[in-house]
Amino acid sequence: MLTLPTYDDVIAAAARLQGHAHRTPVLRSATADARWGAQFFFKCENFQRMGAFKFRGAFNALARFDDAQRRAGAIAFSSGNHAQAVALAARLIGMPALIVMPTDAPAAKLAATRGYGAEVVLYDRFTEDREALTRRLALERGMTLIPPYDHPDVIAGQGTAAKELIEEAGPLDALYVCLGGGGLTGGSALSARALAPACRIYGVEPEAGNDGQQSLRAGRIVHIETPRTIADGAQTQHLGDYTFGIIRRDVDDILTVGDAQLVEGMRFFAERMKMVVEPTGCLAFAAACAAGDAVKGRRVGVIVSGGNVDLVRYAALLAGD
Ligand SMILES: *Cc1c(COP(=O)(O)O)cnc(C)c1O
Q1: What is the signed CA dihedral for 2, 77, 142, 184, rounded to 10 degrees?
Q2: pLDDT tens-digit series, residues 69-100
Q3: Rounded to an integer, what is the distance from CA 67 to the centroid of its chain?
């Protein structure tokens, strides 16, 4: 039996993050409110350290290491924001970090991860099993593996964003959260259920990768092929045991949006709110915009999950190439 993390774990995570993570702003947009007839509260994790909420979960997990774990350090496999989050958290706490990344990871991501002081080990996506490689390295070096979402400390850390949002905005009628493996959605649900019991909670994933939605309907974790979508932070193939446990209990529904809606969201954030938001970071807002009566007259929280996007790609997406 799994012991799921609770809101008390989110409170403990918030204390650990105090002074290390940014308390990101909750922004409003009169234009958005008028256009969709809602009161929106945007929790802007694109302004979080390293550019995404993932810093919260990684720092919380690493901060709980004992002395022996700290000496050996943390290991993770990721080509995205989790890699940079673990690298930065390890540097701040003062421990080694090793990140396993694919040989074809974007050069900017490799450079950013190394820039935070992490050692990077490359693997061939087509011939090597990254989980086996990571487990072998972890064993050889005595390092502690921190997965990107299915870990109680990671989930509790991610939950601190929604905690801050609701504490600042007051009770919400609805909360929309970007969903990949479910760490952010699971953590947000812990906070929302505790602080705003009547709030409806929605996870939002890409249409092409609706494994979460399928899982919720089937009552078991459904696995899919890596989906083709511009939402690269949500190209997960399945939820985790912890995240699914929370989601099936606390989340009202899982919604999906198409890539064109994500581009519309990126455009809105750029034009109206002067923010660079990565495609995955637009999932929640895109679903709220399409929700019609479900948001009309309501107080709606939207978690903007990150802003890490290569600028050439960003420009091409906005231009509609
Ligand atoms: C990782 C990530 C997500 C998905 O988070 P999960 O915890 O895997 O559901 C969403 N947005 C951004 C920007 C991310 O980096």
Answers
A1: -40
A2: 999 999 999 878 999 999 999 999 999 999 99
A3: 28
Phi first, then psi: give them for residue 43, nearest 5 degrees: -90, 110
User: Residue 225 gets which letter from DSSP?
Assistant: P
SS3 call for 185? helix
According to the model, what pLDDT value does residue 126 have? 81
- Answer whether 146's CB lies under 8 Å from 62's CB: yes
The partner residues of 301 in beta bridges, in order of sequence, read: 41, 175
State how far the Cα of 36 lies from the Cα of 13, in Å rounded to an integer.
34
Closest residue CA from atom 7 of ligand 1: 183
* Three-state DSSP class for residue 195: helix
Question: DSSP 3-state assignment of 180?
Answer: coil
Annotated catalytic, 142?
no
**C-alpha to C-alpha distance for 64 and 71, rounded to whole angstroms:** 13
Q: Which residue out of 236, 280, 309 has the highest number of ligand 1 atoms within 8 Å of its CB and is therefore the one to mutate?
A: 280
H/E stretch holding 165 reads helix 152-169
Q: Is the shortest distance between the CB of 278 and ligand 1 below 6 Å?
A: yes
Confidence of residue 205 (pLDDT cuts 50, 70, 90): very high
| Nearest atom in ligand 1 to 182's CA | 9
Which pLDDT belongs to residue 78? 87
